[in-house]
Amino acid sequence: MSPDAVATAAGQCPSGVVGRAVERADGRSKLAGKAEFTADIRVPGMLYGAVARSPVAHARLLAIDTSAAENVDGVAAVLTGADLSDLDPYYGHALRDRPIVAIDRVRFVGEPVAVIAATTQAAADLAVTRVDVDYGVLPIAASLEAALDPGAPLIHTEPTRPGSAHGLGRLPDREANICYRYAIERGDLERTFGAAAVVVTGEYSFPAVYQYAMETHTTIADHQGDEIILWSACQHPFLVRQEITELFGLPLDRVRVIVPFLGGGFGSKSYTKMEPIAAAISRKAGRPVRILNRVDESMVTTRRHNMTCRMRTAAAADGTLLGRAVELWLDTGAYADNGPRVTATAGDAAPGPYRWSAVAVDARCVYTNTGPAGSYRAFGATHLQWVGESQVDEVARRLSMDPVDIRRKNLLRPGEEVRPGGKPLDADLVGDVEKAAAAVGWDQPRTEGRGRGVSVGLLAAGAHPVSTATVRMGADGGVAVLVGTTEMGQGARTVMAQIAADVLRAPVDRVLVRGTDTRYTPYDRSTGASRSTTVAGKAVQRAAQEVLDALTETASMVLEAPPSMLRLEEGAIASGSRSVTHQDLVRARFGFAGGELVGQGRVQPEAGTGSYAEGPVFWEVCVAGAEVEVDKDTGVVRVLRTSSVADVGKAINPQLVIRQDEGGTLQGIGNALFEEMRYTADGILLNDTLLDYRVPSFEDMPAVMSCTIVENGDGPGPFGAKGCGEGVLAAIPAAIVNALADAGVPMTTLPLTPERVWRRIQELKQATTEAGE
Amino acid sequence: MTEHISSVINGSPFEGMVSANELLLDFLREELGLTGVKQSCEVEVCGTCTVLVDGAPVSSCCFLACDIDGRRVETIEGLAGTAFHQIAVEAFMRHAAVQCGFCSAGMILTAKALADRGLDPSRAEISRAMSGNLCRCTGYHSILEAVTDILKVSREGAPS
Is the minimum CB–CB distance between A253 and chain B shorter than 8 Å? Predict the structure, then answer.
């Protein structure tokens, strides 16, 4: 199958704008190097910032001497924790556990201890080396094992303070270094396991991973009097605004966040990152200041959680899955960031999309003395899917069943309960996994040294369903869409334009979608959790409908025909043989060559308390297949072909959907095969540059990467759409692990480096030899 | 310490002083405002800061500004408007090979150097030649398709 092959069940939309590979609105300016990213902006009077960071993982701050730094030519201001005494300087949308800069203690290597603003970057960088800090070193717990030891140093000792956007109901108290715990218990586990014919047990480990958005975290802050303006590469500008107002004691409308194009996000720019530091140093300097991270700084700004997991799966002799018990520990680093949400999502993903008699999940989020971990595409699901799916395959192997058959037998069907009180399943998983298997040649003969695998999972998607949007039609018929979704490469601006154009039957190139400016753009919770098309897109659809209603009302008068006799044409409304353009309708409504039609659209929780724990908005499908080849002499694993299934309800722009899956596939290959942040026992990150932290390149692309789009119209978004782009990243590593096991090498530790795989092959050989003796 | 340089940047002569330790990346972005050149890894791995020096792709993050003395430099701004750029843009748009766009200029400049060699490389050879340019969004497939088209059109002078 060619990579662009698209299997569609639903028909094309009548306008032809939705469902078509409309050209990206921002493509040409990006290809000319003209698209503006945050680091390209020069604010008049702007200073250059640099951050002095702790070289030790856990210490008391005994004294900071900044006098030498202040004396460097060009330095305008130096900020330390002492400058924050008039503020409540702790932030964190989940837990307010993190000071803007270290106040009395540092908790990870790389934690900011001082910030410089200077007239040149070189001066700021030099001044950083002149900040003299006296550290009183404390015992270090830089791994899950160390932090969970009964004698471990406590990384936080103050009472827990919930943040304002965690969406997790009542937060439990911290237990030692465990900052959040999420549990699921259903059915009688003991009896279920007692009755099983097969029980698979294992301990698994998943590494810390760096998201590597090519544009590092970049923010310009301008603190003027009682107002803060931020230009920031952030995914969630409205949540950043909220945290900045809380930190600096300002009303919401006195903090303005402007979002240029993002050079990738993948979760690394979700929630608040470098904005508090930038705002604080600007406040001190009295001038705008830019903070531009280096890669090594972004690596300690946020990362993916490493994880240890113990799982047991029980099955009957006929392959019926009976029970699953899961304990998992996620390393959130020194500050919670999005760790609690990642933990809850991991807990939800742990059972997998099967019909269980009994399930127990205990997921813990653990502080350690390492850089904070937060969101990365398909968090939680990526952590758990390869674990659960490798156990399903192991059950199948022991019962001599086909991996697709065992899934066909046990997968949830549409409408079945996924978790108590949550949304029932809204996708056809059996159909999806059959497509993924077929696309990697499931029924073709097996070759020695090669294996095939599939994987299925669900990701609680959509986050909190609050989005608003405005659609404006000017007196020339042109349309402007104001929506708070961040364009970070996924094509959100193009999709929003398509949705508005489709509703209005406006030419899509007359619909303009610009970046967010929180002063003018209506509220949107966030850009993440695959929610933009589904939730913000629904708000855009409703806003466009309001404009259309006004156009229709005017057309009915102008054409002297009831609304039921009107039909929409491109850029016009017609009745019989007469047609009036949008431009003429706007002018007719206002009686002169001016005026503007403005529509508002809103999405909010339909019922319940508004906590998105009751959701999710939809279940994102995580389905993939893979074929791999393993060199048993070297342990090198090569991914030969992959398949993914984008079960999107309705593809607003099929080409953008496929690009999401292709990009996610390569990230999945990186996560599965070689990406791993490595720390020493005292918390030093060993591979903090791209020289030794390798991400996938052209040459890691599989020869065949197929993406099948499934359109069953079963999503809650516009035209039956639901989100995509994350599920593939959860599904690909799991499919690769299963394919490698099919080739004879079952693995329980990622990434699948040649050394690990080779050692496992030797273990297996030895076990076979011993068994034969 | 400063050094005098004389070079041709995007077709225009440039004469002036640069700091002896100034990187070409910073010189182009900060002094000349050529912000189409992007900064990312700073260790010559990602290729997003790629510019052409005498037609050869270099990572401007690891190249001294003073070393452009007597040489020609082309950035994406200089390429824009040329026939090659038009071919590249149409190919990238046709294959939707641009997403966040942070890597795109570097990709096009590396493709330009490849096209200038006038060869007919295999897909594996194109992947090898492009492997110094990273992209975290696309998964590379669409860029490979676009570059394949660019080379074909550049060679044969007709759209595929």
Answer: no
